[in-house]
Design brief:
single chain; alpha/beta; binds iron/sulfur cluster; twelve-stranded mixed β-sheet; 329 residues; 11 helices; TIM Barrel; binds S-adenosylmethionine
Length: 329
């Protein structure tokens, strides 16, 4: 078991396979995109598989593959298939924008993917275009239908942005009436590739909940699963659930069980922290499995207590102006 110095068990890796993306969500990156990483700087799939195999032996039980958009990297599905075959891995999940995903859903089901996070900030096509700068809503909705048809659990991620999609909160909640999805509203974080930071957050978790409660006063609180980053609710009689993720307010750090690996191989033990170690460099310098595992153990032991502490320790290291696509959301 991997434990940090605050007694938390770490068993969840978020692995970003690319920084590239086919959308340009304005809360994540500028319209012109970001300075994409050179291909040779990215970890290869073989390197990622080697690392994941070593980490799983140490106690990592769950891997979420993310990015950038994972499906834009060539060879992603064969990689995912190999990852799904790792001995000891209990759960493999994906976060995707859903633009290219629909045709791969049957294969995802076949290799045992039970749950997918699909990003969807609005059900309105014009607003989708305004937020993502691409006209791809029908493709995303097709992915949603395919996932539900294949009985894959769906969590819909919606970033709540003042002046952009707060009118979408209630229509997204209404989706849970007939669809067994979990719609999760996420506080906007500063990682937008430098286009201007979120300085204060007017649409925090409390305001989001108030908005939902004003339309659905009977909404009830559910018991949150262990390590959940969302506060979860359900409207009586509805098939789906509603979650609120205080990603900026950071109220869930006490039970944090996760680490992140960026496409460059940088390990972040907190989203708000800096890289504590580069695993690609270690691999390319010929590290043995035991050396990789010792490095992982040390990195985890130094995990900061909270995102606020990590941000403070990160002062001057500029990663708050990074894009979520380079960190791996
Ligand atoms: N491209 C995929 C997608 O959009 O689902 C995976 C990567 S994306 C960086 C992962 C998640 O991070 C998405 O759900 C996205 O909404 C979220 N995200 C990106 N930038 C964010 C920000 N500034 N604040 C809060 N969430 C953000
Ligand atoms: Fe791409 Fe996901 Fe970032 Fe949107 S949030 S730009 S889909 S990586």
């Amino acid at each position: 078991m991997l434990k940090d110095r605050h007694g938390r068990t770490v068993n969840y890796l978020r692995l970003a396979v690319t920084d590239r993306c086919n959308l340009r969500c304005f809360y994540c990156m500028p319209e012109e995109g970001i300075d994409w990483l050179a291909r040779k700087e990215l970890m290869t799939y073989e390197e990622m598989l080697r690392l994941c195999a070593a980490f799983v032996k140490m106690g990592i039980e769950k891997i979420r593959v993310t990015g950038g958009e994972p499906f834009v990297r060539k060879g992603f599905m064969p990689f995912l298939t190999k990852l799904s075959q790792l001995d000891g891995l209990k759960e493999l999940t994906i976060t995707t924008n859903g633009v290219l995903t629909a045709p791969f859903v049957p294969q995802m089901k076949k290799i045992g993917i039970r749950s997918v996070n699909l990003s969807l900030d609005t059900l309105d096509r014009n607003r989708f275009f305004a937020i993502t700068r691409r006209d791809e809503l029908p493709q995303v909705l097709d992915t949603l239908e395919q996932l539900l048809k294949h009985n894959i659990e769906v969590k819909l991620n919606a970033v709540v942005m003042e002046g952009q999609n707060t009118d979408d909160i209630l229509p997204l909640v209404a989706l849970t009436k007939s669809k067994p999805v979990s719609v999760r509203f996420i506080e906007e974080m500063p990682f937008n590739g430098g286009e201007g930071h979120v300085k204060s957050l007017s649409w925090d978790h409390a305001q989001i909940l108030d908005t939902i409660k004003s339309a659905y006063p009977a909404i009830t609180k559910l018991v949150d699963p262990p390590f959940s980053t969302s506060f979860n609710y359900q409207i009586p009689g509805y098939k789906g659930t509603v979650g609120i993720i205080a990603a900026y307010t950071r109220s869930f750090c006490g039970s944090c069980n996760r680490i992140r690996l960026t496409p460059l191989g940088d390990m972040k033990t907190c989203l708000y922290g800096h890289s504590v170690l580069n695993f690609k460099d270690l691999l390319r310098a010929g590290a043995s499995e035991a050396e990789l595992q010792a490095a992982l153990e040390k990195a985890i032991s130094l995990k900061d207590a909270t995102g606020w502490e990590a941000e403070k320790n990160n002062a001057g290291q500029a990663s708050l102006s990074a894009s979520m696509a380079t960190i791996g959301g």
